[in-house]
């Protein structure tokens, strides 16, 4: 069976030129076009999967806004979205907001100008009324905002779960790293944890943090052990921060999980590669991406009668920064 | 000074509507438009940075193709590109190839259809003649391909450096994790290492690997210690693989760096958070991104007389998976 390369060879042109003819996109000289079409006919060339996609006049684009692609949680969301939309013939383009408002505005404008069919946003920024009047549907992912369609993990339950698993395993002097104040998801985790700890009358201390970045995480970790050297159980605001805390604890010679237990949040791919492997509250990032894509496509297709705010379950992943329940006297 | 929010409030519309008026983009009812313009005049509103960018009729887009956004090396490249192009008034949109040829073709087509001004690609795929005839300039990043413009780190020197640092610190039975065969950069590191080891007549073994993914990395790590339990020095194909090797070594109870030394490649943000922190060969990812952006903009501006293939220096980052030179007898 003839391939696009055979066609290019027969016509004496490049594969890209054949693509442009198939796709009717970009300039191709009239004579060249004729040569390509003749070659297609002579070879009875049938476009394969790639070429078929090139026949489509215009890709259907979905735009994704991520707050910081360096945080490994977000690429997992993107992968879930991609796998879901690809089956439906959509393509994903990603903009990295980098937590800057002008960038976010620029990307929203770019997406609109390029006629994206829909937008999925994991913006960190508050005052998001700029999403109110867009012509394309918008889904908030890992975020909630008023009554906008959204997919998010159950942070309150996650916080409660993390706190109760620590206490169940014997921690008595808990320290909580409280995530960025502007992030509802981070506050949900925090509120879920402290509500449970208060109800159970367990002592706890709080370290305030303002970001999830790798470099800041090292700073919070140091601050934590300076302020609360005797803590025996730590709830980290996410897995990146947990990795920094684990590092600092081992550097200080603490035995983990014997002297100190630690639970993260997210379950990013690196968490199982840490040593000891990190116990954490898993957010189903990949599945959250898939659900957001499904929700967006329903909005695009103007379907009715479906749930517009999807809360995804979280799960305790027991690894080795927490003790076994039976070991706790 | 009046802000866009004040204008929106005065006109009784959303900020997004004001943006659309400023930007002349998307439908705004004639009466609404009038209200907004009146409010702008009444308040003597001067567009700030955001609004100014909204005035621009069309963003100038640069498209970036990444092989796998889950590998933390690639987001660093993206950040370098972003910071460089932003000053020049460009915006970056990212496509994740996911190491699949049809996806790559789709993205190239999408970028062309949306009139991207230039493309930066870190494709893993061979047979890349589809880049030959594009109407926009292309820069290969972390890759080289024939005589196409490119920015890449000096992998041969990196491999040599890693091997010599291990041997200098006393390792005698080296194992090399050889990265994916289709990746020139991975092969350069490998070739640089073995050329030096052969010249110095140092024994070494090789484990072949076919990807850099987190899940595969655990498999290679297990295979390595099953086949070569006595190895005392490991060159990992990148830092993700090194993290998996470190994990497995600690699980097996090896003392690091006393029994076993380990050097990674890349210096991703997580490497310093491992425990012990990972010694590695640093690729200047962020700066590589910046250089690729500069090169692309030179090509876009049709400048002449500049270097089209830029080899960036690598550097040994000494942390704690290698011994101090003076400790080695």
Automatic annotation (TrEMBL), chains A, B:
**Per UniProt, which keywords does this protein have?**
DNA-binding, Repressor, Transcription, Transcription regulation
Output the InterPro entries linked to this UniProt entry. HTH_LacI, LacI/GalR-like_sensor, Lambda_DNA-bd_dom_sf, Peripla_BP_I
Q: Which Gene3D superfamilies match?
A: 3.40.50.2300, lambda repressor-like DNA-binding domains
Q: Return the PROSITE patterns for the record.
A: HTH_LACI_1, HTH_LACI_2
Say if the entry is tagged with keyword Transcription: yes
Task: Spell out the Pfam families in the cross-references.
Answer: LacI, Peripla_BP_3
**Lineage: superkingdom:** Bacteria
Q: Which GO terms describe its molecular function?
A: DNA-binding transcription factor activity; transcription cis-regulatory region binding
- Give every HTH lacI-type domain span: 2-56
Specify the protein name.
Catabolite control protein A
What organism does the UniProt record list as the source?
A: Peribacillus loiseleuriae
């Amino acid at each position: 069976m003839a391939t696009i390369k055979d066609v290019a060879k027969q016509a004496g042109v490049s594969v890209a030129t054949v693509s442009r003819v198939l796709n009717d996109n970009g300039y191709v000289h009239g004579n060249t076009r004729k040569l390509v079409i003749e070659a297609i006919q002579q070879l009875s060339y049938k476009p394969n999967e790639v070429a078929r996609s090139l026949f489509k006049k215009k890709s259907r684009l979905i735009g994704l806004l991520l707050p910081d692609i360096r945080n490994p949680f977000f690429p997992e969301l993107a992968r879930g979205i991609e796998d879901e939309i690809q089956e439906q013939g959509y393509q994903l383009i990603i903009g990295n907001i980098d937590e800057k408002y002008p960038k976010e505005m620029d990307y929203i404008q770019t997406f609109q100008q390029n006629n994206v069919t829909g937008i999925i946003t994991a913006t960190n920024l508050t005052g998001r009324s700029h999403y109110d009047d867009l012509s394309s549907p918008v889904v908030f992912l890992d975020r909630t905002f008023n009554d906008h369609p959204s997919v998010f993990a159950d942070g309150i339950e996650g916080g409660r779960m993390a706190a109760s698993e620590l206490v169940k395993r014997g921690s008595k002097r808990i320290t909580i790293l409280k995530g960025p104040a502007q992030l509802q998801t981070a506050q949900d985790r925090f509120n879920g944890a402290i509500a449970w700890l208060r109800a159970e009358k367990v002592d706890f201390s709080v370290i305030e943090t303002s970001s999830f970045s790798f470099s800041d995480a090292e700073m919070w970790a140091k601050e934590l052990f300076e302020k609360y050297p005797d803590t025996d159980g730590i709830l980290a605001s996410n897995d990146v921060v947990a990795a920094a805390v684990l590092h600092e604890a081992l550097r200080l010679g603490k035995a983990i999980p014997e002297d100190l237990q630690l639970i993260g949040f997210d379950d990013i791919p690196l968490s199982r590669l840490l040593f000891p492997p990190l116990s954490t509250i898993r957010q189903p990032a990949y599945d959250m991406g898939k659900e957001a894509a499904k929700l967006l496509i329903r909005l695009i297709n103007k379907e009715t009668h479906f749930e517009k705010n999807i809360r995804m379950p979280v799960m305790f992943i027991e690894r080795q920064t927490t003790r076994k329940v039976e070991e706790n006297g």
